[in-house]
Structures are given as structure tokens and as C-alpha cells.
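thought: user wants a sequence for this fold. calling inverse folding tool.
action: design(structure=
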């Protein structure tokens, strides 16, 4: 008994409380050498700090919205399970109200995840693309004594893309009638540790634990170091068996921790290479540099390394075959299978949205967690959370499969909050360019599930393909599942999982804090009621937030695009500029036409009818 007491006192002494006071704001920074542009600052400075904590630490982050005007904010620590603290997870509309200017939210939670690489970022309106993000590294004790692999030094390298304009400046053009295909803005550069042409000075014959974190919001990157192998030992906070490769493919939000052993020879420097996955770009501007080169410097007097090329981009490590160090057998058959189809399409306004099962996520009037906490006996009824939150209610400890069918021709990195998951199927890409059509998962005809599946928190699906992930619903909370491409989250590519809502209600640690309530009050939002804010009849959703109407039957997508062209005669030049972000691309009209499989003659015809009103154009298209 005495021994036990001493042991627990010691562990208390080791667990520190780590307090951070962060205030957002705007500043100017030249990040990529292309000139200054506004960035989101932390206490007036940029970049945001990288955070390092110990497992067991209590973390308190006081986040103050220091923006002017109407810009809201929030914070999510990516990869943390927030066990017993779902109200600290961050996404507005899901677990909290948005933090309005002048207000402060206290994020207060215990770190009990595996040692490894995590990160934090704003969960509002694409803000992290403007620089509101940083690494969040968890150590296991002073010297990581439980860590299974030997290394000499540790280095964090964040990667990401960078735009020459701010996201709040790009959003109106992106979510616009003038961008009917939903073409994502093209970034100008790839950055490494918030800069370009970085020099990483290394010692010879040394093993580095290199933590690669993609803190970007759009493109996946290929990453390699000239003439140096990388041994993967961790993905997304999960320690893995060693796996050696020459090249990684890292989607946004994913982390790869690798061992790199340096040469015993300092006679030359080597290139650290990042390359866009250009298949994710709707157009490739001629001036876009797809490769970014930094330097692994054995001797800084030798100067920067030259660009290094690879023969093929197909030889990157396939994370599907990685095995966790603490092998976890395939979980048993699912109790609940959630099947979701991903698609991108236009709603009536002509704006392009993203859908899971024809629903584009639209935040409720009352954040979903707050509906759980005030919903009494109705909480297990998914209806009360609204028609547009795509909510699924999970029972305590059930095994859940998410079957995701990607009907879209793009690659998407999906992220689940509150969990890591086993990846049991990831099908190959189906290429529309050679006539292949979307290939949904077929329960009666699929590859064998792995015995020890790969486990992580962010997973990409190939174009027109599918994946199946599996987890145990053992973490009561409200958890967002969404595409981590910020453009697609803005377009509504998200669902909400509510895990064991009765347990959330009854757990004293899951209740709303004063800070949480204050932030809602300041935002003029209720923290009680169903998705529509109805506090008496939770089944009455009158007045809830819903997506705009779909295009009526008989109207085709092609017709809507034609309407866009005819109503806005002569705007092709404007579309060229604002949608495709190109002024010099010679064939952009063809690209627009190709995107919609339009008959060019039809556009010409429609363009000629300049005097159409919106109504008679609609009539014509409906016909
Ligand atoms: Cu997350
Ligand atoms: Cu994230
Ligand atoms: Cu996406
Ligand atoms: Cu998220």
C-alpha cells in the first residue's frame, strides 16, 4: 500500500501542467521568398510555436480571438483522443461554439496518447492555411525510455503548401458561381519548416529521428532525401515495425516519423526533395515549380544541394502494409457498418459542394455536443442533431466499420477525430481517363483483411475507389470525420459520429465548462436544444440550418453550367482568371469544357443569347 502511494505520488510529480496563452492576430511575413503577405500570428509573432509535452501532462491553452471584425476562430489538437474531454476537441458546431473576436476559450485536457508526432491547428474556415498551426510532440518521460528504437538526435520537419493570397481572400472565389467545377486554388509553393530552400545541418554517422508532419491543407507531397534511406517507425502517433523506403507520400495531416542514418563522409551535401502530387491540381500553371529543394548539409561551406530527381513516383511506401509495433489483431466483425458515398456536385446556386450520401455538412444552430448534453432521453435519436449534420449514433463498445466509396475522381485524405482506426481495405485507383468508373466496396468480393492492420488517424482514398476502416466505439464523445483538404471541408465533406451519448451526459468530466458557455453566449448561440435550438420538443427541427436546394429534376449539371455561361455572357475571361488562377494558360476554355464534358457549340450558342434573364434561361435549360 505504501509502495503504491509513493508510486502514484511520483507519477503526479512527473505530470506537469503546461499552460499556453495564445492570442490570434494578423501580421505580415515573407514565407516563400515571394514577398510579404498577411499571416495569422500567435501573440503577434509567426510562426506558431511547436509544442512539446510529456505523456500525462495537463495542458491548458487559453486561446483568445484577437481578430477584428467578424472572424471567428477555434483550435484542434490533431490526433489526440480527448478521452473524457470531448468538449476540448475544437471543431465549431460539433463540440463548441466559435470563438468570436475578443473572447477566450480554455482548452484544458490531459495528454494520454502514445509518444509521437501530432499537431495543432485552427478548425475554422481554412485558417490554418494562413499559418495558424504548429507541431505538437508527445514524449514518454524525460528520455523516452519506453521508446523501442535507438536514435541520437530528433528533428521536426513540417511540410505544407503556401499561397500568395490569404484563404479568406480565396474563399469567395472558390465558393462561387464562377467556380462551378469546384476547382481548388493552386498553391504557389511547397514549404519546409515554414520556409523554402532550408538547410538542415547534420552530423556524420548519426541516427536522426525525423518527424515529418504535413501541416498543409490541400496537396499531398512526395518526400525523399537524395541517396539516403528512411526507416519508418511511426505514423500518426502509432509506433510501427521498421520499414525502409526511399520515398514517402504524405497527405495533409499525416505524420511519418523516420530514422535517417547519415553518411560517414562530409564531402558533399544532398537534396531534400518535396514534390506536389500534381494529380490533385485541376490545372498545372506553367510557372508552378512542382519540386522544392532543400539541403541536407554535411558541410555548410559546400553550399546548397542541387535538385535531385527520381526515376518513378510509383515507388513510395504504401502505408497500407505497415504493421503497428504493438500488434493489434484485426477487430472482430462489425456491429455497425456506416457506408458513405463521396461526391462533388453543384447545388441550385451553381456553387460546387461536397457530399457524403447527398448531404453537404451544414453546421447546426446548437453545437452537436451541446444537443447531446441537453437532449435527455432523445439523445440516441440521430434526428435531433439535424438533417444536415450527417450524424450517426454509435453504441458503447461496438465495432464500427466506415465503408467509404469515393465517387469523385480526386484523392482525398480522410481524418477521424477521437480515434485511430484499423485500415482493412484500400482499393486501387480507378482511372476515368481510361474509361473506368467509380468502384464502390463490394462486401462479397474484396481482398482479404490484414491480420494486423495498419492503424492511423488520417487515410487517403484513391480516385473513384473505396476504403474500409474499423474501430471500437470505446471513447464516448462527439467526433468529426472529414476530408482534411480544407477546401473540401468548406464544401461540406464531413459527417458527425456520436459515441455513447448517454455516457457523455453522465460523465462529470464531459460537461460544459464556464468558458465553453461564455463563448456560446458571446457568439449569440444557445448551448441547449436540438439542431434547430428547440429546447422543448427535440424532435421538432423547424428552423434548422439546411443546405441550399438541389438542382431540380430535369435540369442537368450541364444545363446549370450553360446557364452560368449564358447569364454571365462574356465572363469566360473572368472564370479563366478567378477559377483556374491562370492568366497565361492557353487552353483554359478547353479545360472548362472538358471538366463539364460540354459540347463547345452549346457554349457558343448560349453565349450568343446575351439578353436572357435568369428566368427564361432556366426555362430553356429545363426544356
Ligand atoms: Cu483531428
Ligand atoms: Cu487536423
Ligand atoms: Cu477531399
Ligand atoms: Cu477535424
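)
observation: tool returned 623 residues.
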Amino acid at each position: 500500500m505504501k509502495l503504491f502511494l509513493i508510486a502514484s505520488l511520483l507519477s503526479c510529480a512527473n505530470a506537469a501542467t503546461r499552460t499556453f496563452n495564445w492570442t490570434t492576430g494578423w501580421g505580415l511575413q515573407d514565407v516563400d521568398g515571394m514577398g510579404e503577405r498577411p499571416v495569422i500570428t500567435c501573440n503577434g509573432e509567426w510562426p506558431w510555436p511547436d509544442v512539446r509535452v510529456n505523456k500525462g501532462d495537463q495542458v491548458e491553452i487559453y486561446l483568445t480571438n484577437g481578430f477584428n471584425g467578424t472572424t471567428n476562430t477555434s483550435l484542434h489538437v490533431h490526433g489526440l483522443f480527448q478521452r473524457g474531454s470531448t468538449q476540448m476537441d475544437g471543431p465549431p458546431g460539433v463540440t463548441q461554439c466559435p470563438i468570436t473576436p475578443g473572447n477566450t476559450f480554455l482548452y484544458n485536457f490531459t495528454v494520454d496518447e502514445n509518444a509521437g508526432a501530432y499537431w495543432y491547428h485552427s478548425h475554422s474556415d481554412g485558417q490554418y492555411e494562413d499559418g495558424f498551426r504548429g507541431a505538437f510532440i508527445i514524449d514518454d518521460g524525460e528520455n523516452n525510455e519506453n521508446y523501442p528504437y535507438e536514435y541520437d538526435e530528433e528533428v521536426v520537419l513540417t511540410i505544407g503548401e503556401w499561397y500568395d493570397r490569404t484563404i479568406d481572400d480565396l474563399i469567395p472565389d472558390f465558393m462561387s458561381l464562377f467556380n462551378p467545377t469546384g476547382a481548388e486554388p493552386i498553391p504557389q509553393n511547397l514549404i519546409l519548416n515554414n520556409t523554402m530552400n532550408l538547410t538542415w545541418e547534420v552530423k556524420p554517422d548519426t541516427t536522426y529521428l525525423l518527424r515529418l508532419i504535413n501541416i498543409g491543407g490541400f496537396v499531398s507531397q512526395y518526400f525523399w532525401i537524395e541517396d539516403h534511406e528512411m526507416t519508418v517507425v511511426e505514423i500518426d502517433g502509432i509506433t510501427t515495425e521498421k520499414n525502409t523506403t526511399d520515398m514517402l507520400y504524405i497527405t495533409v495531416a499525416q505524420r511519418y516519423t523516420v530514422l535517417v542514418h547519415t553518411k560517414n563522409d562530409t564531402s558533399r551535401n544532398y537534396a531534400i526533395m518535396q514534390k506536389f502530387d500534381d494529380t490533385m491540381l485541376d490545372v498545372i500553371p506553367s510557372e508552378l515549380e512542382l519540386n522544392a529543394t532543400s539541403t541536407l548539409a554535411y558541410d555548410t561551406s559546400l553550399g546548397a544541394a542541387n535538385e535531385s530527381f527520381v526515376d518513378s513516383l510509383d515507388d513510395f511506401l504504401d502505408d497500407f502494409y505497415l504493421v503497428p509495433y504493438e500488434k493489434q489483431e484485426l477487430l472482430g466483425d462489425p456491429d455497425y457498418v456506416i457506408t458513405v458515398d463521396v461526391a462533388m456536385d453543384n447545388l441550385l446556386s451553381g456553387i460546387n459542394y461536397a457530399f457524403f450520401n447527398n448531404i453537404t455538412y451544414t453546421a447546426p444552430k446548437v453545437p452537436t455536443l451541446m444537443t447531446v448534453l441537453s437532449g435527455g432521453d432523445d439523445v440516441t435519436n440521430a434526428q435531433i442533431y439535424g438533417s444536415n449534420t450527417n450524424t450517426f449514433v454509435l453504441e458503447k463498445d461496438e465495432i464500427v466499420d466506415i465503408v467509404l466509396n469515393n465517387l469523385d475522381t480526386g484523392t482525398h485524405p480522410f481524418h477521424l477525430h477521437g480515434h485511430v482506426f484499423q485500415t482493412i481495405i484500400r482499393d486501387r485507383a480507378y482511372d476515368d481517363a481510361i474509361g473506368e468508373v467509380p468502384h464502390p466496396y463490394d462486401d462479397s468480393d474484396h481482398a482479404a483483411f490484414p491480420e494486423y492492420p495498419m492503424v492511423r488517424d488520417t487515410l487517403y482514398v484513391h480516385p473513384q475507389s473505396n476504403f474500409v476502416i474499423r474501430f471500437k466505439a470505446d471513447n464516448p464523445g462527439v467526433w468529426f470525420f472529414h476530408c482534411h483538404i480544407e477546401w473540401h471541408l468548406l464544401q461540406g465533406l464531413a459527417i458527425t459520429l456520436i459515441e455513447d451519448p448517454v455516457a457523455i451526459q453522465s460523465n462529470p468530466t464531459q460537461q460544459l465548462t464556464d468558458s465553453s458557455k461564455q463563448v456560446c453566449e458571446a457568439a449569440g448561440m444557445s448551448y441547449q436544444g436540438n439542431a434547430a435550438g428547440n429546447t422543448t420538443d427535440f424532435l421538432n427541427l423547424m428552423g434548422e440550418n439546411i443546405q441550399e436546394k438541389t438542382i431540380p429534376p430535369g435540369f442537368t449539371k450541364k444545363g446549370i453550367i450553360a446557364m452560368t455561361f449564358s447569364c454571365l455572357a462574356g465572363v469566360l475571361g473572368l472564370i479563366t482568371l478567378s477559377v483556374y488562377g491562370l492568366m497565361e494558360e492557353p487552353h483554359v476554355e478547353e479545360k472548362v469544357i472538358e471538366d463539364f464534358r460540354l459540347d463547345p457549340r452549346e457554349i457558343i450558342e448560349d453565349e450568343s443569347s446575351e439578353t436572357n434573364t435568369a428566368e427564361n434561361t432556366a426555362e430553356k435549360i429545363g426544356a
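thought: summarizing for user.
answer: Here is the designed sequence. The radius of gyration is 25 Å.
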